[in-house]
Amino acid sequence: MTLKKIYLSLLLVAALFTGSIGAQASDYSSYLSDDQVPNSAVFLPLPSDSADAAFVGDYARWVWGKSLRPTARGQQASWESKFGMPRMCTIYSALLGIDINADNTPAIYQFMYRSGHTGGSVVGIMKRQHFRKRPFLLMNEDVWGEFDHYSDLAPGSAYPSSHTGFAWSVAMALAEMVPALQDTILRRGYEYGISRVIVGAHWQSDVDAAIMCSSAAFCCAHNNEQYATDLAAARSEYLHLKGLSESDIESLGYPKIEKILDPPYSKDDMAYMGDVAQYWSTKALRNGERGSQAEDDEDITSDYLLSIFSQCTTVPISATETPAISMLVNLTELALNTMCKTSKNAWPIKRPYVQMGEPIARYSPQWYASNDNAYPSQHAMLGWGIAMALAEAIPGCQDALLKRGLDYGYSRVITGYSYPSYVEAGRIMASCAMINLHNSEPYNSVMQNAKAEWEEVSKQHSVESIIARSSLNPTAWYTLAGIVLPSQPTIAGIYIHNGKKIAIK
User: Fold this and answer.
1) CA distances from 21 to 30, 45, 96, 222 (A)
2) Segment 418-434, tens digit of pLDDT
3) Which among 100, 288, 295, 426 could bridge 376 via Cys, Cβ 3.0 to 4.6 Å?
4) Superfamily of structural domain 272-458
């Protein structure tokens, strides 16, 4: 029996002895304090408007969603317009085979609620800063979801989707709680987000952005000891109610893309034209600075990945200077590459430039065009997965790391190697892989070593040095970790500006 199994067994015995499973104190707060919440306004791209090429895909998905409303899938979407725990409890009670509620399953209920609220906190930052009209407003329609109300939705921004942020966060938490059911749990979380497109409350990119917010929240929540405590209590409660042992719910391997996501768009899908529109529009970026970065980002080696993320940290990271962090990157990369090989075999599909009959944007081996499957994007999977791992290990630099991870994946769109939907699929599957990795004792050990190493090297980087840097650049705002912010922060906390500490309330 592993140490992890012994710990869970002791926790279950203690819970049964004290009656804590049935009568524990409830705590429904986020796992992240205000200064720990990843700033989605920094790492997410701005929402597209109706003049952008990216909007073509959103419009196509709105048309697709509307066509499903008279069907059984449309009725499911309408029913799923119920926000928060009421609908989560119903969905996952059926899936897990237990009656989930605050009285019957207090540990599971609390874990779900706190996880959902944590993901929602990241969604809310971007939502408050950039208003985007919802589909039903732009299309001059009324709300369609059974539990949606015009007066509630109309004043709020569509980007990102709050329903999706809450639901995907709950799905990630439950997938970590019951690894054997990860694919089924994550599929239901994904479906719930797509339901927001079908009812016309959100664009597809609103849903995609919310999944990224929830994923960022998931990795950062693991820095809160209470998350681990709640996870263990929820898992013990589940095992007790089902009469199972931990071996009964062990993972069956990496998440499987064909069981979680929908197939890639075919040329008969209207949404395919959204991918094509962005393929042509981003070609204009190839000759500029962003195009040069995109070409450099073709590099998939560990050394390159360390180097680009090192530019996001207050203390340089490298194989020699921070070997534990380097080990974390290497292990994450290995896991993601292993899962990616299987994922690419699910739906073999040619790369965009091959589909378009165009020459390759930059020299690559011939097999790239003839044999390599494009879906999902391996680069997007690596960029986002490693960014998530480093955001957990190096929390003070999380926003810059997450942004670079997203940019690394988008470089594939610019060079013509991947469509935007291929990139998004890669990011989602990276998030799913990180759930699986957190159930691995060797991986968690490497993660803890990386965190300890960062804490040690960070001691050499004092607040005084950040203040000195701020004095040289008085117009910039800095976090206490030394990250330069694009503008004056809106989140409460202590920042450095013009050589002084300033409290934002």
Assistant:
1) 21, 42, 18, 22
2) 999 999 999 999 999 99
3) 426
4) Phosphatidic acid phosphatase type 2/haloperoxidase (1.20.144.10)
